[in-house]
Amino acid sequence: MHTLIATGLALSVSLLSSAAMAQTVLPLWPSGAIPLAKPGVTLTEKSTTEGGILRISDVTVPTLTVYLPTKPSSTQKAAVMICPGGGYSILAAGHEGSDMAKWFTDRGLVAVVLKYRLPDDRTQTVPREVPLTDAMQGMRMIRQQASQYGIDPSRIGVMGFSAGGHLASTLSTHYNRGPKADEQAKPNFTILLYPVITFGDKAHGGSRDKLLGPDKADAAMIELYSNEKQVTAQTPRTFLVHAMDDKGVPVENSIMYYSACVQHNVPAEMHLYPTGGHGFALRTKPGESVSGWPAACENWLRSFLK
């Protein structure tokens, strides 16, 4: 089992072991000053399991958890930052986080799970900006420490599920916008599973309302965070997966993002399945067509991570 040792940063690293992976937990903001946080206001982070799903909430100290590959591979110099879903209310950090990390490390990639802060006006000054602020910092940290983990800084992607897919697509389309624009925060590729994309028609209302809060009816905010409208020629290549019977996030979310990629000549691949519902991740039923999405994703990754 590998052991990772963080160097070059004045931070505290805790090492956790499991049967399959070594984990290094890094504070996302090692300087101690966390942007957009109200001074002196913290919450006790909660972690519960309901219906077999690990649910983390009230995050005030975001982290990155780094997992090394378990065997050599042609894709070994690549990394993926994983954004669990949860409607911007909780983080489904097991099946949409650590379970997915194992899948990547088994295939020779470094996996990094982002435990990001969820919008919360109790602890944050501008809640809607907080998840993207954390995601941009996560991508910067991975790129800055790429040599330490054997990562090629030009082969770092982002993956998101559901509302985590909204965050991943926001990172992919907003990294170069506004006063906080930063090319170091740009993913080189994007993987989106049953993602929340639009905040207009076909939106997942819960994710939209939680992120935008009092601005949920503001036309400019709806436009800004409808990421199918923010795709440009600079958007990273994208892989999308969605089930057509998804009752939580309509399949049109993925279709709109894919269509925008095509319009702007962004390489994109989309897999739509007749059944599968919402939130399946790797928990698919044997024989169901949606169970083929991991193999399709692996083939897609190998097509450009050579």
Describe this structure in words.
The protein is α/β, with parallel strands linked by helices and 306 residues long. The chain has one domain: Rossmann fold (3-Layer(aba) Sandwich). The protein is 25% helix and 20% strand. The chain contains 7 helices and 12 strands. The chain has a 9-stranded mixed sheet with strand order 1-2-5-8-6-9-10-11-12, with helices on both faces. The chain has a 3-stranded antiparallel sheet with strand order 3-4-7. The longest helix has 15 residues. The protein is globular and about 45 Å long. It comes from Fibrella aquatilis. This is Alpha/beta hydrolase. Keywords: Hydrolase, Signal. One of its GO terms (molecular function) is hydrolase activity.
Describe the structure in brief.
With about 300 residues, this protein is α/β, with parallel strands linked by helices. It is built from 7 helices and 12 strands.
Give the secondary structure arrangement, pairings included.
Layout: E1 14-17, E2 22-27, E3 46-50, E4 53-57, E5 63-67, E6 79-83, E7 91-92, H1 94-105, E8 110-115, H2 130-144, E9 156-161, H3 163-174, E10 189-193, H4 205-212, H5 219-224, E11 237-243, H6 252-263, E12 268-273, H7 293-304
Parallel strand pairs: 6-8, 6-9, 9-10, 10-11, 11-12
Antiparallel strand pairs: 1-2, 2-5, 3-4, 4-7, 5-8
Helix pairs in contact: 2-3
Protein name: Alpha/beta hydrolase
GO molecular function, one term: hydrolase activity
Keywords: Hydrolase, Signal
